[in-house]
Each structure stands twice: as structure tokens, then as C-alpha cells.
Specification:
Elements (H helix, E strand, L loop, with lengths): L7 H11 L4 H12 L7 H13 L3 E7 L6 E7 L1 H12 L10 H7 L6 H34 L5 H31 L3
Antiparallel strand pairs: 1-2
Helix pairs in contact: 1-3, 1-4, 2-3, 6-7
Length: 186
């Protein structure tokens, strides 16, 4: 299980501020919409949902979901939860810590053959092309949601950040490949 930074609480409150949801729908939405910059596990989501309900920041209700024959607990944000979310949004964000393994490998690249690094950079470019496509699909999906009265305008901005980020990393990888090819890794 990933370390809980305390932000999980606010991630979930933000999701519930959009609409009432189950732990499962929160996880799926996070995997799709936020995976380029934020991850949460089921092991973080469900205990946090129960804690939010215990603190009066959310309420839960059993709701039989059609087709699956089992009860799902649907959570909704309370006014107290909205206030907690609003207070957190006003705070200065923590300094982000970038962990990008490819940068370590390039940094230590003089300890391997140039072909190894070039192959890893090719994979990075391929992965980023898929992620760019995903981000553009999310942007289109947000437009469709807006037509259904679910406003994701600000989420569109996070997807746009993903577009810029993955584009920049791909451009860097192309430059890095050029450097390695021209200098033989030296």
C-alpha cells in the first residue's frame, strides 16, 4: 500500500463534490482521469471513505446497483465536507517531488551501452504517445460530461497539463536520443 500523505481525504472529498459515488467508481475515475499525476489504491480509498463518514464530512447509503445483485455503499459529501475541501484548496500546495526512473538511468548511462538507453527512450516515446492520446480522449470526454450537466472544466485543465507534460518528455527523449547517437554515449 502506498504511503497515505493525508491528501487522500481531500482527493475523495473533491470526487464526492462532483457527485455521490462508490469507492469503486472513485477508484476508476482516479485511474482514468488522474493517473498521469495522482494515484490512490483501494486500500487507501475505502478506509478514507469510512473515516470521512465517521468525521461527518461524508454520508453513506446502501444502494443496490442494477445488474450486479449486491449492495454498493454510495457516499455523498456533506456541507462540513465541502467546507473542509474549500479550506484545503486555499492552502499552499506542498512542493512536488518528481520520481522519474528514466532520468536516473540516463544520468548513469555511461555504465551501459548506448543502444540500451536508446531502446529505453524509444519505449518512453511510445508510452508517452499513448498517454497523450489518453489525455486528449479525457478532454473530449469532459466535453461530453458537460453536456450531461457534469462540469469537469477544471479537470480538463489537469488533462491539458498531461498533454503538455507528455509532449515535453517526448521532445526531451528525442533530443536525448540525438545526443546519445551523435556522441556514442560520451
Amino acid at each position: 500500500m502506498k504511503e497515505n500523505t493525508g491528501i487522500t481525504k481531500y482527493v475523495i472529498l473533491g470526487m464526492l463534490a462532483r457527485k455521490p459515488q462508490t469507492g469503486y467508481t472513485i477508484k476508476k475515475w482516479l485511474e482514468n482521469e488522474y493517473s498521469h499525476f495522482w494515484q490512490e489504491s483501494f486500500g487507501q480509498i475505502y478506509p478514507t471513505l469510512r473515516k470521512l463518514a465517521a468525521e461527518g464530512l461524508a454520508v453513506s447509503s446502501d444502494d443496490m446497483q442494477p445488474g450486479n445483485g449486491r449492495g454498493q455503499i454510495v457516499y455523498s459529501i456533506t456541507n462540513t465536507g465541502r467546507k473542509a475541501l474549500s479550506d484545503w484548496l486555499r492552502k499552499e500546495p506542498e512542493i512536488e517531488k518528481l520520481r522519474y526512473e528514466i532520468l536516473l538511468k540516463i544520468s548513469f548511462g555511461d555504465n551501459t551501452e548506448p543502444e540500451v538507453l536508446l531502446g529505453q527512450l524509444d519505449h518512453l516515446i511510445e508510452r508517452n504517445a499513448k498517454r497523450l492520446n489518453d489525455m486528449n480522449e479525457y478532454i473530449e470526454h469532459f466535453k461530453q460530461l458537460k453536456q450531461q450537466d457534469v462540469d469537469c472544466s477544471y479537470s480538463r485543465l489537469t488533462a491539458l497539463c498531461g498533454v503538455y507534460f507528455y509532449s515535453a518528455m517526448s521532445e526531451w527523449a528525442i533530443e536525448a536520443k540525438k545526443f546519445i547517437s551523435e556522441n556514442g554515449g560520451k
